[in-house]
Amino acid sequence: MRFVFGDHVLDVERRELRRESELVPVDPQVFDLLIYLIENRHRVVSKDDMLAAIWAGRIVSESVLTSGIYAARNAIGDNGKAQNLIRTSSRKGVRFVGDVRVESSEDLPTLPKDGTAEPRPALPLPDRPAIAVLPFQNMSGDPEQDYFSDGISEDIITALSKLRWFFVIARNSSFAYKGKSIPMKRIGEELGVGYLVEGSVRKSGDRVRITAQLNSAATGSQLWAERYDRDIADVFAVQDEITESIVAAIAPQIYAAENFRARRKPPESLDAWDLVMRALSQFWRVTREDNVAAQVLLEKAIAIDPDYAQALAILAASHVLGTNMGWEDNTASVPVAERAALAAIRADSEDPWAHLALAGVYVNLGRLEDALAEFEQALSLNPNFALALAYYGQMLSWVGRCEDGIVAARRALRLSPRDPFSAMVAYLAAGAEFIGGNYHEAMRLAREAIRQRPDFVGVYRVLTAAAVMAGEIALAKASLQELRRAQPNISLAWIAEQIPVTQDERSEAFRRARELYLEALRRAGLD
């Protein structure tokens, strides 16, 4: 079905909006909102109608809905002042008032006998990494099992669509390639994407094997691949688990690929997104020099776009990291981080990185309840955000919910074992295990973080404290020596100042954890 209005054509099946002959890039959620408004053009649709239809009843802020309507108007050449196509009815809702002609969509090209179709014109790439999830192949030899392989693909599309940093092609467009043998480059051009996710499902008895690959559409090269073998006693639980694992693995691989692509660009052609991707690659190296370099890149991105939520959020997170690692003065950096985090949320309240950054600020300010709420908001927006989950797990342990904290931290480790942030996740998980009294596990995780990032100063603090509590005094002394090398000004007084005294409801558990940590470091010989 196609809706024609003015000089626009909205093709529902192909998920395309065109102005005359030009393709208009539209966020998938905004595209769905346009379809809903046009299909219901005979009436005023309320805020609740739109939330139920587009956001599936999920609680979102008023600004998210307002931004969606603004983006929909902007996509079709309308605005809040003119309201030629989307008109606001005071305190009631909005209505699509343009004249609409409904047409049948052009049939898909007829396939010749060789099974291929004439290629469609290449679509331009949007301003974010664009991904298409192709239908996973059913390798079981039983057509009735298509529901399972299709379900995996659909769930991955849904989960990736929640990651606002990516442009994800809708199911109807990517499933048009089901059962067809078409080169990746051509699919990428026809869908206007840089990345393709594909895979297969093979069920045999009570076992299922699922493979998944992330490929570059332009070159056909494989960027990531994994195989999952599972018992299938609960088919839907397995489907959820596999989807979660695949999505958590794909996101950091795309960040890494985008960073590599950005580094091949000459400096004068770098845009804000490229600068953020390069900054991320500096940020996850966890050294003073790299953190400073990341901040320089992020500030350049913000100079290009002052309301760039992702750049503001990572800038805030980098200043929080700088204070926690001893690279920046707490009193000077925390206000800078807070301003950047709040600006990120104002720019995009649905960005999980913005809420993660603000949570880190609140931890440094001793506002534990607020910090937990922000961690939870980040995870509600992206349940597969391994770094946020690891921070949340450590925080839960610090406030007395050790069992929940350790579960969260271990899940973060499982979610993204090849994440560029995995050293940081291991460090945070080590902290959760230490507070929970699992000192040998804390030591193991700390050593893994050090293996990946030998100059990660914060890890040596956890390793030193855990080794003392485990009775490994020689290891504690050696770790303390490395800590002093990495942070020459380290002292008990400095660490005590970094762990705030708080009056929040959970302050008693927090105080006990704080004293345990300081006492362990004192026993190691830190003064």
Helix content bin: 40-55%
Overall number of structural domains: 4
Continuous helix count: 21
| Spatial gap, N to C terminus | 73 Å
Shape: globular
Structural class: alpha+beta
Radius of gyration: 25 Å
Q: Examine the coordinates and then state which fold CATH places here, giving the name of the CATH topology of the largest domain.
A: Serine Threonine Protein Phosphatase 5, Tetratricopeptide repeat
List the helices and strands and how they pair.
Blueprint: E1 2-5, E2 8-11, E3 16-19, E4 22-23, H1 28-39, H2 47-54, H3 62-75, E5 86-89, E6 93-96, E7 101-103, E8 130-133, E9 137-138, H4 146-161, E10 167-168, H5 171-174, H6 184-191, E11 195-204, E12 207-216, E13 222-231, H7 235-263, H8 272-283, H9 288-304, H10 309-325, H11 330-347, H12 352-364, H13 368-381, H14 386-398, H15 402-415, H16 422-435, H17 439-452, H18 457-469, H19 473-486, H20 492-498, H21 507-524
Parallel strand pairs: 8-10, 8-11, 9-11
Antiparallel strand pairs: 1-2, 1-7, 2-3, 3-4, 5-6, 11-12, 12-13
